[in-house]
Amino acid sequence: MAQAKVLGDFDTGHCGAIHDTQLDCYGECLATASADGHVRLWDIREPEKPSFMADLGGHAGPVHQVSWASPMQGVLLASAGDDGLLLVWGRRFKPGEWLTVHSEDLRRHGALRAVAWAPGERGAVIACASDDGTVTVVSHAGAFDTDEETVEHRWASHPWKAHSGHACAVSWATPRCVDDTLIGLAGARLASAGADGVRVWAWDAANSRWDPEPFEAADIRQKPARDVAWKPWDGVCETLASASGQEVAIWEQEAPEGGAGRWRAAGQVDLGEEVWKLSWTDIGGLLLVSLGEEEPHSVLLKRRLDGVWDVMPVEAEEECN
């Protein structure tokens, strides 16, 4: 059993269900996304008494997911809404003031279900998933002077049909060689989840398109997937986890840089409850799984040397008074 200490709990003030929560890179600011169409920001440096920072109300419907950019890109937050808008928020110099840095209208693809910033080395690049099965990669194309006093920031959008039904999750591969140098989309890879399972994509710079990576023949037909998470590179093989119904599936690809090999099913864990969200730890190879309907909770999955996955319930540590 894994112990988790509850540092604090509080009322967010949202008027609807909370669909997503995300901490920034430093663990100091919490963003909450709600069915009421608002994103709220909280200073949790003192978690026992969080303080309200800002209310971002740019969506005309529920907000399904939020994502913080790498600090390499500045203080930026992206939000994906049921209204089909991708909004990028930036912090002003004055505390508590935020502005919309960019608004990408993707309503032609239906509601936006997921959003994820690329690793910082890729630059200001965002992937999002839409109801009609489209995945769109939006990237900052540069800043241009329009006159003596203003600067225009231009963004490029690259959509493609990734799934035969809806698309509901996206996850980026981490570069195998990490440093502070911007490398752009060269060698970029992305996984998506949707009505027809998991798909993996590689950026083809020569033809400016995202090409699908192959799966083993037995794994081409898959169950619908709710979520997908790309494990940080461990020096051995590329690994994905996906959530389908009450199961977590593990996918592996043993291949050189560039993704020349085929993806194969490498394991499956039946948890007996509906699985909703997945997240790998940065180190240690642990997979955090959010599951359950009547009483949502979390478990940790860790693979033993013999390939079997241990399931460790996460229990809140009781405080001693």
Automatic annotation (TrEMBL):
Coiled coil: none annotated. Keywords: mRNA transport, Nuclear pore complex, Nucleus, Protein transport, Repeat, Translocation, Transport, WD repeat. It holds the Pfam family WD40. GO terms for biological process: COPII-coated vesicle budding; mRNA transport; protein import into nucleus. WD repeats lie at residues 11-52, 56-89. GO terms for cellular component: COPII vesicle coat; nuclear pore outer ring. It is found in: Nucleus, Nuclear pore complex. InterPro entries: Sec13/Seh1_fam, WD40/YVTN_repeat-like_dom_sf, WD40_repeat_CS, WD40_repeat_dom_sf, WD40_rpt. GO terms for molecular function: structural molecule activity. Belongs to the WD repeat SEC13 family. This is Protein transport protein SEC13. It comes from Alexandrium catenella (Red tide dinoflagellate).
